Amino acid sequence: MKKILYMCLFFAVGTVTAQKYYTKTGQTDFKASVAAFEPVEAKSNSTTAVLKVDSGDLAALIFIKSFHFKVALMEEHFNENYMDSDKFPKATFRGKLEGFNMSDLSSTAKEYNLTGTLTVRGEKKEIATTAKVSKNGEKIIIESFFSVKPQEFGIEIPSIVREKIAKEINISLNYELVEKK
Questions:
Q1: What are the pLDDT digits (tens) for 1-52?
Q2: What pLDDT, in 10s, does the model give residues 68-124?
Q3: Which of 147, 149, 136, 140 minimizes the C-alpha distance to 112?
Q4: Nearest to 30 by CA among 124, 135, 150
Q5: Which residues are within 8 A (CB) of 154 and not within 5 positions of it... i.e. 6 or more apart?
Q6: CATH number of 19-179, picked from 2.40.128.110, 1.20.1250.20, 1.10.3720.10, 1.10.10.10
Q7: Where are the domains of the chain?
Q8: Closest CA relative to residue 120, chosen from 92, 95, 96, 146
Q9: Cα–Cα distance between 36 and 15 in angstroms, integer?
């Protein structure tokens, strides 16, 4: 009886502690530039992301104030006027790499469908894109790209600058994940 109890406990613990890979230094970039005007683009190197390798579940969190612009005034306007980052300090993504299989990974990137929910400023949007996933030594590399519209997240662009900001914001992700031990 004790053996059966120990075996059940072993399988239960194994299920709860699924293998995860993570990063706290994931790179997230966005570009909202329009030709002939000053580039509107920012980069963050502090996205936290976690991948459950048994299910392909992917979650990411980024603090809005971690985005940095080349022009300090642009960064200030981004945080205060557009993103209201004191009220909405973070953005999240919860999704899944469809058909993900750890044993299929190699140094050659494999493309997976990535679906999930992006939450920005308390507004949710379903995202459907692709992600290139590869393995570099003990690291899993995830790269993806998608576009969103500011109005989908309640972001109002004043008419005085509307022509200087793209109607769609291009977001790119580059995460190097290591096994969480």
A1: 444 433 443 444 444 457 999 999 999 999 999 988 899 999 999 999 999 9
A2: 999 999 999 999 999 999 999 999 999 999 999 999 999 999 999 999 999 999 999
A3: 140
A4: 150
A5: 121, 122, 123
A6: 2.40.128.110
A7: 19-179
A8: 92
A9: 54
Report the chain's C-alpha Rg in angstroms. Answer: 19
pTM score, two decimals?
A: 0.87
**Torsion of the alpha carbons at 162, 85, 94 and 153, rounded to the nearest 10:** -30
Residue 29 in tokens: 């970039």
Residues in contact with 80: Cβ distance below 8 Å, sequence separation at least 6, in sequence order: none
Please tell me the distance from the alpha carbon of residue 173 to that of residue 170, in angstroms, as a whole number. Answer: 10
- Say how many residues make up the chain: 181
Q: What are phi and psi of 25, to 5 degrees?
A: -125, 30
Cα–Cα–Cα angle for 50, 154, 142, rounded to 5 degrees: 25
Side-chain-side CA neighbours of 95 within 13 Å: the count stands at: 26
**The token pair that represents 54 in the structure block:** 């048994």
Which of 123, 100, 95, 124 shows the shortest CA–CA distance to 111? Answer: 100
Q: CA-to-CA distance for 47 and 112, rounded, in angstroms?
A: 21
